[in-house]
Design a protein that fits this description.
- The complex is a heterodimer of chains A (84) and B (155).
- Chain A is mainly alpha-helical.
- Helix content of chain A is 81%, strand content 0%.
- Chain B is elongated.
- Chain B has one domain.
- Chain B has five helices and no strands.
- In chain B, helix 1 runs antiparallel to helix 2.
- The chains are: A mainly alpha (84), B mainly alpha (155).
- Chains A and B meet through helix 3 of A and helix 2 and helix 5 of B.
């Protein structure tokens, strides 16, 4: 019962953070939402008893990819262009 | 876009702890989940934290391109050296000559359920350390080269 509840919470958080990535105009906030998505994926891997993959996902997905996106935002502009 | 003082102080504070945790994952690779690649990725995340928090001129006093390139080369040389050492001892390539020998990492694994002994498994921890050092240098230098191409800030 408690496992079903945790699964439901994690999957709801995944959908919510993916929608946040889509709707944010502030690219730094969108990047942090993508990092949170990666962190929730890592929690899901841990629940499914793959701790090896969970460590990889937390380090690469939530850490290095977010760092690379932040450096790219530093080199360009912070807000999305086009319509305001 | 210059990072705030909170970000820079937090990065300075967290950097040694992330480094120690990554080295722990590398060193216990043959006992617990994780191994060379995972631990190296954790260490590279700590390096990337510092790289994100500072500008390129400030970060080159802490993290140098030459050091990261040297780590990558040393890791690869150590990995292939572990294979050639088995060949030199008269065993097949990458054979585990150190297991159960009483030398470095050479203890016999005790029978039955036990928490695990660090001093076992022969060549495997040496390969984990090699892969960990190599991934540390390789992933850190990707982020460092991305940062080095940013034009001068302040305009």
């Amino acid at each position: 019962m408690i496992e079903v509840a945790i699964h439901t919470l994690v999957i709801a958080g995944l959908i919510a953070s993916a929608l946040m990535v889509f709707y944010f105009r502030d690219l730094l906030a969108a990047t942090l939402a993508a990092g949170f998505f990666s962190f929730l994926i890592s929690v899901e891997f841990y629940i499914l008893q793959a701790p090896d993959v969970a460590i990889s996902q937390a380090a690469i997905g939530a850490g290095l990819t977010t760092a690379i996106f932040i450096i790219a935002i530093r080199a360009t502009s912070r807000y999305e262009g086009g319509q305001p | 876009m210059r990072m705030s003082k909170i970000v820079r102080t937090g990065a300075n504070l967290l950097y040694p702890f992330v480094l120690i945790f990554g080295l722990y994952v590398i060193m216990h690779g043959h006992l617990t989940p994780g191994g060379g690649f995972q631990g190296g990725a954790v260490v590279a995340t700590g390096v990337a934290l510092v790289i994100v928090a500072y500008s390129f001129e400030e970060v080159t006093s802490m993290i140098k391109k030459v050091g990261m390139k040297a780590r990558e080369s040393i890791g690869l040389l150590l990995f292939i050296g572990a294979g050639v050492a088995a060949l030199a001892a008269g065993a097949p390539f990458f054979s585990n000559i150190l297991a159960n020998s009483g030398l470095l990492f050479g203890q016999t694994v005790p029978a039955g359920p036990n928490p695990g002994d660090l001093n076992t498994a022969g060549v495997i921890p040496i390969m984990n350390v090699a892969v960990g050092i190599e991934v540390w240098g390789g992933l850190a230098i990707i982020v460092l080269y991305m940062l080095s191409s940013i034009p001068e800030e302040g305009s």
